[in-house]
Amino acid sequence: MAYTSSLHLPKHLLLPSPRRTRHRPSSSVSFVPAAAARANGVNGHAPEKPPPPPNGKARINGVNGKKGVNGHVNGVNGKKGVNGHADRIHLSVSTGGGGGAGGQDGSGLRVAFQGAPGAYSEFAAKTALPGCDTLPCRAFADALAAVERGAADRAILPVESTMEGTALRNYDLLLRHGLVVAQEINLFVHYCLLAMPGVRAAEVRRVISHPMALAHCGRALARLGVDREPVEDTAGAVEMLRSNRMLDTAAIASPRAADLYGLDVLAHGLQDESWNVTRFLLLSRPPSPVSLPVDADAKTSMVVAHRGGSMMVLLKVLSAFSSRNINLTKLEAIQEIEKFAVFVRVLGCYAADSTVYDLQ
């Protein structure tokens, strides 16, 4: 048995840029005693789904937490074996530019992503690192491998969504590869129905897209009465549609993909649930290349592995966090991963950014 968690080591709220705003929800969830941890309303675990705000822009709250322990966490249960041989988790602090999503200059960086050009992962990467180049990859594992061999500087990985919950397979990739989390970004996902120029909705007999996109738009597709065909990814569906000039077929993808491939948008907001947010992690080779501003809230992701399924280990870990007023924003129990983490493995320390970016 093992537990993965995300922790806040907060200082002050990041200053909002013109592209992002923050809204604080009134409800919270306590994970450890004395309200030392609060859910931040992202990562698929919000106490309630806030209604989409006016003018179609998706917003969510910033971090609301207490100060951490001088930027580092000591070992658990009297041990110091954090992240292999490190005694403590050190946060790199600078007085420079923002370390949060959307605050870094991506010029000169190449980001590997799964899918074809126009994928949601690519848009998330370009929002997190404006000016970056992107490298399409066939599979998520290929994107991580590209960073390990030096073909890319970052890999972007979707790890959870409000509609599907945690992507455990992608968390498994974090443990199988030696990369560290350098950044996070939350993306509001809009699904659109795209077709070749001049094709009308009544002429569509089949819709192609990623299986998750088809599932997320099930009610709308049922009303259309069309056949559904899963393909590898949303942007790949658009690429297939365009290259084969399919006049009886539509694809579910983003409005940006329509612009990129020159397709018509037959319908906007096709998803069954209006609040559809995906959280992405940007990964790099260790050590993390990101320096945190002195006024930034820091988040640490780690995995704690133990044998025997005892709850005592979890209680001791939570007690260590509680006594230091460290906020716990997410806790996930995963079976059978002791071989990846002997006791504690730190997946990364990075600036917390709970802004939801709307790319529409």
Protein topology:
Blueprint lengths: L1 E8 L83 E2 L15 E5 L5 H9 L4 E5 L2 H9 L5 E8 L3 E2 L1 H9 L3 E9 L3 E4 L10 E4 L1 H6 L1 H7 L2 E4 L3 H11 L4 E5 L1 H7 L2 E4 L9 E8 L7 E2 L4 E8 L5 H13 L3 E8 L9 E8 L4 E3 L2
Parallel strand pairs: 2-14, 3-4, 3-5, 7-18, 9-10, 9-11
Antiparallel strand pairs: 1-15, 1-16, 5-6, 5-13, 7-13, 8-11, 8-12, 15-17
Name the descriptors.
single chain, 18 strands, D-Maltodextrin-Binding Protein, domain 2, 2 domains, alpha/beta, five-stranded mixed beta sheet, 360 residues, seven-stranded mixed beta sheet
Count of helical stretches: 8
Assigned CATH architecture of the largest domain? 3-Layer(aba) Sandwich
Largest sheet entry:
7 strands, mixed
Helix coverage percent of residues?
Answer: 10-25%
Distance between the termini: 41 Å
Q: How many structural domains does the protein architecture include?
A: 2
Give the topology string: H per helix, E per strand.
EEEHEHEEHEEEHHEHEHEEEEHEEE
CATH superfamily of the largest domain: Periplasmic binding protein-like II
Query: What amount of the residues lies in strands?
Result: 25-35%
Instruction: Show unreliable segments.
Output: 9-101
Structural class: alpha/beta
What coarse outline follows from CA principal-axis ratios? globular
Q: What is the count of β-strands? A: 18
Summed over residues and divided by their number, the pLDDT gives a mean of 73
CATH topology of the largest domain: D-Maltodextrin-Binding Protein, domain 2
Rg measurement, Å:
21 Å
CATH class descriptor name of the largest domain: Alpha Beta
- Quaternary structure of the protein: single chain
